[in-house]
């Protein structure tokens, strides 16, 4: 049965408008994005199949062009639309983070880092550089590694912080394994970076680990 023949309250688009996007299932959200299904399958059926095919919403969002366009119901136009939606979300969170105080609005920083790092298939280490009022100066990806590890050089982080005239910074990296708990090496590195930056009067306010939809704050966990 086509979605247009469903009861109005069950149609994904009408449900979103009436109850909000949070009320929709993952498959229903994808259905709104797709707009139409394919012969023999509704947009919701197709959304469910795409989620299974790519291992979840995150997998669908990070799918490369070739893989996404080969999936039934997607194609070049839908792939381009998906990339535009993801970039709009990143820029929206970037604006929220840039205009607020990183200490009084930590969720904006957390959300930005989660969206930026959660779907990386390799480890990435980045820094959020802040001024004396804890406002964001810049966000930079400084090191990139493999599936399980990356090499981080304190000297390079100190150089970039001084180049930005930063008064403080927030560290962040991802765990492609999906486990947000810090390793022993993560804790040692955080302490080494905090000590090195303290020598030039720059504070480390937090260190976030992003693992899929989860994230961990060193400050909140008592590790910093």
Question: What's this entry about, in short?
Answer:
The chain has 224 residues and is an alpha+beta fold.
Based on the model shown, name its key terms.
elongated; 47% helix; 5-stranded mixed sheet; 224 residues; 5 strands; 10 helices; alpha+beta
Description:
With 224 residues, the protein is α+β, with helices and mostly antiparallel strands. It is built from ten helices and five strands. It has helices at residues 12-19, 26-34, 43-54, 57-61, 65-70, 75-99, 106-117, 154-163, 184-198, 218-221; strands at residues 124-130, 136-144, 168-174, 203-211, 214-217. A five-stranded mixed beta sheet has the order 2-1-3-4-5, with helices on both faces. The longest helix is centred in the middle third of the chain and has 25 residues, at 75-99. It is elongated and about 65 Å long. The model has no long low-confidence stretch (mean pLDDT 85).
């Amino acid at each position: 049965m086509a979605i247009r023949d469903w009861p109005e309250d069950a149609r994904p688009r009408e449900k979103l408008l009436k109850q909000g996007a949070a009320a929709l299932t993952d498959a229903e959200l994808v259905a709104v994005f797709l707009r139409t299904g394919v012969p023999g399958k509704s947009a919701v059926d197709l959304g469910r199949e795409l989620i299974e095919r790519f291992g979840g919403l995150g997998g669908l969002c990070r799918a490369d062009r070739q893989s996404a366009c080969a999936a039934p119901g997607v194609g070049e136009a839908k792939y381009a639309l998906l990339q535009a939606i993801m970039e709009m979300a990143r820029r929206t969170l970037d604006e929220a983070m840039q205009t607020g105080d990183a200490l009084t609005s930590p969720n904006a920083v957390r959300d930005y880092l989660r969206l930026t790092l959660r779907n990386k298939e390799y480890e990435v280490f980045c820094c959020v550089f802040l001024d004396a009022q804890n406002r964001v100066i810049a966000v930079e990806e400084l090191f990139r590694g493999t599936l399980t590890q990356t090499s981080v050089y304190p000297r390079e982080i100190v150089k970039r912080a001084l180049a930005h005239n930063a008064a403080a910074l927030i560290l962040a990296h991802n765990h492609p394994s999906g486990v947000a708990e810090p390793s022993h090496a993560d804790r040692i590195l955080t302490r080494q970076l905090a000590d090195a930056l303290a020598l030039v009067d720059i504070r480390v306010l937090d260190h976030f680990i992003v693992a899929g939809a989860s994230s961990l704050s060193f400050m909140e966990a008592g590790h910093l």
